[in-house]
Amino acid sequence: MLTLADLRIGEHGEITGFTDEILSLKLLEMGCLPGTEVILTHHAPFGDPIALKVSGYTLTMRREEAATIQIKRK
């Protein structure tokens, strides 16, 4: 299973699902819908948090949260 936390800077992915039901509601409200393309754009010096482009804006989150978002590479 590939997750958003597995992407490297500049890589694209498509959201396919979530592993955390409670966190998924918050992510859905922020535009992280299944089928949405995401691009990892930055990460902090020690790797956490990360920044990604999703639904036309930049979203930051912790790697722990990103690991709950299942994706497929594009």
From TrEMBL:
<dbReference type="InterPro" id="IPR007167">
    <property type="entry name" value="Fe-transptr_FeoA-like"/>
</dbReference>
<keyword id="KW-0408">Iron</keyword>
<dbReference type="Pfam" id="PF04023">
    <property type="entry name" value="FeoA"/>
</dbReference>
<dbReference type="InterPro" id="IPR008988">
    <property type="entry name" value="Transcriptional_repressor_C"/>
</dbReference>
<feature type="domain" description="Ferrous iron transporter FeoA-like">
    <location>
        <begin position="2"/>
        <end position="73"/>
    </location>
</feature>
<dbReference type="InterPro" id="IPR038157">
    <property type="entry name" value="FeoA_core_dom"/>
</dbReference>
<protein>
    <recommendedName>
        <fullName>Ferrous iron transporter FeoA-like domain-containing protein</fullName>
    </recommendedName>
</protein>
<dbReference type="GO" id="GO:0046914">
    <property type="term" value="F:transition metal ion binding"/>
</dbReference>
<dbReference type="InterPro" id="IPR052713">
    <property type="entry name" value="FeoA"/>
</dbReference>
